[in-house]
Amino acid sequence: MKISVLTPTYNRENLLKNLYNSLIENSKYDVDIEWLIMDDGSTDNTKELIQNYIKEGAIEIKYFYQKNQGKMKAINSLVPKASGDLIIECDSDDYFTSNAFEIINKEYSKNTDKDIYALCFLKIDQNGKNMGQTFKNEKTTMFDLYFKEEENGEKALVFYTDIRKKYKYKLEKNERFVTEARMYHEMDLKYKILCINEPIMICEYQNEGYSKNISKEFKENPFGYYEYFKEILERNMEGVKFNKKLYAVKHYILFSYLTKQYDFKCIKSFECKFLYIILFIPGIVKSKIWR
Q1: CA-CA distance, 202 to 129, in Å (whole number)?
Q2: CB neighbour class for 85 (10 Å; exposed up to 12, middle 13-18, buried from 19)
Q3: Are residues 49 and 24 in the same domain?
Q4: Band of the pLDDT at 222, cuts 50, 70, 90?
């Protein structure tokens, strides 16, 4: 089995060592590793650092460079270059547990289902705390996991390469970011995920990272988020928790205001239509204040 690890990076020279060392540690298991790095226009010594890693020859590393275009375009460029059986997208501030690839190999070898697009594992923080809940169901979709099964934390997805290469992150109007969930929900329409209650990835959020600056991302990338919430509300929403329906409607109103695109007819669920009607005016007022 071969695993392709895809890492977009921008001025993270000081963090890449943790990820590199974790890959070295996992190379002792019966897996081939290729680390594909897209340098998104770094101005630090990222290139020199990676070149030194390549010279060490401990694992297969391929370094690519692009002018600063954002994480999603970086990954879109890396996916076609992957040659592994599996693809893992790993940010430069994340790294793997000491036995991650042993666990992945074991679960990959066991699975014979043809309708699985990814193995889904737990993520933990540096203190070993689970970044979310444990899985309730072994087989599900990413949409059901977060909108019906009440998950609210991050997970680590290990994609089957042949399926992952059929999809990409869809960016709207030259925006630089879109939530990964938009692609996941598209994949959910044809395939499922297999959930394993074991951690394989350790995460440490940086002050300049996406999760620390969600309001900024909303304002700079409203069209992608508008499409994301529109696609959610186009579903029948059967089985979706009320708080998630409320979440979707409130954000759809926000991004409708930010993009000046208002489409009431796309909302399929009667309950969501009702929520939209009663929340529209206060939502627009709140959006104007927030902006």
Answers
A1: 9
A2: middle
A3: yes
A4: very high
